[in-house]
Amino acid sequence: MGKKTKTVGWALVMLCYSVALAGVSGWIGYKVVSGRVEDAAPAARPQTFYATVSDIRDNAVTVTGMEVNDINFRGEFCFSVTEETEITWRYTDISLGDLEAGDNVSITFTGEVMETSPAQIQGVEMIQLLDDEK
């Protein structure tokens, strides 16, 4: 075996080693990133924002987010109230019929926000009436 053959052989070994190492590193990086994305699913964590009731029709509620919210929750939103939706005022259960246009509320949800106009919220868990008087 000549000196040239040994050099080419070592070059091929180093090339294979580099390709294998890059592949393993890429796979590890993918697993780390994909794990973080899965762990960060925002729809699974409750989110709360403050709003003023704009309209109530049957079980559909439209609200306008207040300025104290994050910029993503300052627009108009609509959602449906289901039997599972808790509606309270001062830790007392109330009904949807107790809410009126102009009332200040907090909305807690775990579903997604569909980017329509107005934005649609899914999975509303709780509506809290914030006004001093009912």
Euclidean distance between termini CA atoms: 95 Å
> What is the overall pLDDT average?
83
Give the number of domains: 2
Helix-strand pattern, N to C? HEEEEEEEEE
Throw out a few tags for this protein.
single chain; OB fold (Dihydrolipoamide Acetyltransferase, E2P); 134 residues; rod-shaped; alpha+beta
In short:
With 134 residues, the protein is of the alpha+beta class.
Task: Report on the architecture of this protein.
This protein is an alpha+beta fold. Strand 1 (47-57) and strand 2 (60-65) form a beta hairpin. It folds into two domains: 3-40; 44-129, Copper binding periplasmic protein CusF (OB fold (Dihydrolipoamide Acetyltransferase, E2P), Beta Barrel), CATH 2.40.50.320. It has one helix spanning 3-39, and strands at residues 47-57, 60-65, 76-80, 86-89, 92-93, 104-109, 113-114, 119-121, 124-129.
Layout of helices and strands:
Layout: H1 3-39, E1 47-57, E2 60-65, E3 76-80, E4 86-89, E5 92-93, E6 104-109, E7 113-114, E8 119-121, E9 124-129
Parallel strand pairs: 3-8, 4-9
Antiparallel strand pairs: 1-2, 1-6, 2-3, 4-5, 6-9, 7-8
